Amino acid sequence: MSEFFDRLSEALTSTGKNVGDKAKAKSDEVKLLYKVGTEKKALDIIFTELGKAYYEEYKEAPSEELAALVSEATIKSTEIAALEDQIRTIKGVYVCPNCGADIPLEYDFCGKCGTKVERPAPPAEETAEEEVQIKVEVDPDSADSTEE
Ligand SMILES: [Zn+2]
């Protein structure tokens, strides 16, 4: 009988140990997965910086393999700049050529770096300006190019 209890006790102990090992393995796995996730994020940041550095260095003459990506980056940069211009127009500010800070249209100096700046022409009547530009582009001598 005691032999039976010994075996039972042994079986329970080893089962418990097994469960404990599995739980520990699971917890180690979770910890390692978390670490892998953290390291991947860090690596992504490094790759991003690497890509930016490459772009700045080689955007004028990228390697053949990377030309398409460089071109995409240029297109996106241009689109972003245009959108930021629209935001500045809405906010009524222009950008400091020295530090890049926003400057209200009525100011002659940058509030951040103190640079005196040449203010752009006031956008009082923007739509009118655009119409003028369109009219300038149209050759007044050619009758077929007149609209309406
Ligand atoms: Zn400034």
> For the largest beta sheet, what order do the strands appear in spatially?
1-2
Count of strand segments: 2
With helices defined by DSSP (H or I, 4 residues minimum), what is the helix count? 3
Bound molecules: zinc ion
Structural class comes to: mainly alpha
Spans of at least 5 consecutive residues with low confidence: 128-136
- Most strands sheet: 2 strands, antiparallel
Q: How would you spell out the order of helices and strands?
A: HHEEH
Q: Name the beta content range.
A: under 5%
Q: Please estimate the helix content.
A: 55-70%
The termini sit apart by 110 Å
Description of the molecule:
The chain has 148 residues and is mostly helical. The chain is 64% helix and 4% strand. The chain contains 3 helices and 2 strands; from the N terminus they run ααββα. The protein has a two-stranded antiparallel ribbon with strand order 1-2. A hairpin with a 6-residue loop joins β1 (93-95) and β2 (102-104). It is elongated. The N and C termini lie far apart (110 Å). Bound molecules: zinc ion. The site of zinc ion (ZN) has 8 residues, from loops.
Strand-helix topology:
Blueprint: H1 2-58, H2 67-91, E1 93-95, E2 102-104, H3 126-137
Antiparallel strand pairs: 1-2
Bound molecules: zinc ion.
Main attributes?
148 residues; binds zinc ion; mainly alpha; two-stranded antiparallel ribbon; 4% strand; 3 helices
